[in-house]
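Homework help board

Subject: predicted structure for assignment chain

Our instructor gave us this sequence and asked us to write out the predicted structure in token form, then describe one feature. I got the tokens but I'm not sure how to describe them. Can anyone check?
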Amino acid sequence: MTLPPRLLAHLETARPFVSLNAGLTALAGAALQRHGAPPPGTAAVIVAVPLIGYLGALYGTDFADRAADRLTRPQRPIPSGRIGEEEAVMLMVACVGAGFLGASWLGFPAVVATCAAMLVGLARARTKDLGVVAPVTRSLGTACNLLFGAAAAGGALTPAVWLVALLFFLDTLPKSLVGGLWDVEADRATGVRTAWVRHGVARTRWLVIGATGVTFVAGALVPLVAIDRPAEYLASYAAAAVLMALACRQLLPAAVDSGRALTALDWLLRERTALAAAVLAGSAGLGLALAVALPLAALAEWSRAALMRPRMYRLRAS
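My token output:
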């Protein structure tokens, strides 16, 4: 199937293989807070708001990175001219407005959570080249996604919600780190001081493996204290654990190239889907979690094959 070029450009910017997890994570947070699934209409808005907000952030960051992308990734939508610079800014503003509109419909706590997520997003943009600080701010954004869903569900946030938000923070650290390895040469060329540039590949890959191991242990212990249906959580978490192991396997060789880094990132992004599905299963049942997560995973796989390697994550246009 051949997509119209304009639609393809916007899909590349949207990165469904990443952004779909934002909505699923928020829904998991709402189910955790409510001890069950929210009503369908409310659930749809809870999923949509972080998706739209994430899309706005992507338009904004791609606009901000346009000069560097012209040097190393000229095939991307903005530097290639398939999305105009003014169009990207207008779409960013529209997404932010739509996100706040949806949050307003959900209630004041959701608006507060949306403001917090926006502030974290701004901090992330300002810390992109600050080594290990950048993955920390990105990880805070994922925790905000879960907290947004919980806040939208109503009531004071439970200790279980805060604990699982910490789990999602830990879970995002290795993803944020490994996401900077595939284009480390481009970052060096454009002066972006990521952890890989500052501390070297050999040292930073062990930080990724160690952070993944900590996440694995934390995820296995969470159902002891924060999950209503631990057996259903663990049924989905088993898949997440396997995906973590597959990612770490790619990083074990001392000479990790960009291909292995992208493969590790693939596995870790799939693992995020499995982890969010596990929390949803442990709060609202395995059947609902599968019904929601499997279609999202299928769409993410299509976008990964169509957009990730051949287009958005290729360093040079052919």
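Reply (TA_rk): Your tokens look well-formed. For the description, you could write something like this. DSSP finds 14 helices and no strands in the chain. That's the kind of observation they're looking for.
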